[in-house]
Amino acid sequence: xxxxxxxxxxxxxxxxxxxxxxxxxxxxxxxxxxxxxxxxxxxxxxxxxxxxxxxxxxxxxxxxxxxxxxxxxxxxxxxxxxxxxxxxxxxxxxxxxxxxxxxxxxxxxxx
Length: 111
Ligand code: HEC
Prior knowledge:
- The structure is a single chain.
- Helix 1 packs across helix 7 (98-110).
- The protein is mainly α.
- Helix content is 71%, strand content 0%.
- It starts with a helix and ends with a helix.
- The model has no long low-confidence stretch (mean pLDDT 89).
- The protein has one domain.
- The structure holds heme C.
- Heme C (HEC) is lined by residues 32, 36-37, 41, 43-45, 50-51, 53, 56, 62, 66-67, 70-71, 75-79, 81, 85, 105.
């Protein structure tokens, strides 16, 4: 009986956690976009001559694997971004791993 109660409450907790974290993920993703590198990704990407991330994701021209690869390794004029992303306050506060931080900024751009 005790075991059953424990199982039920664990499931309830996990279910609740998942709902809270989907909304949190979008918020953290927005903070990354606005704050990484001090001025945010938009300092470069909101300029029309640079890649338009939302449009590229929506059209299917930018895969998540390629997105993650660019953030980790940089690409021509695009600086490596993981250190800047992991330094954003809300990312640290959420305790995200690098992959979770990539998921968050992707989720914000793809929403
Ligand atoms: C200093 C300006 C600058 C900043 C800041 C910047 N980017 Fe970029 N980014 C670029 C440029 C320029 C390119 C185009 C690189 C190329 O392919 O020549 C690019 C390319 C990319 C690409 C690859 C697009 C493609 O079509 O393959 C991704 C993904 C990307 N940036 C994401 C981000 C994210 C997310 C951030 C914020 C964490 C960010 N960038 C911050 C300048 C910047």
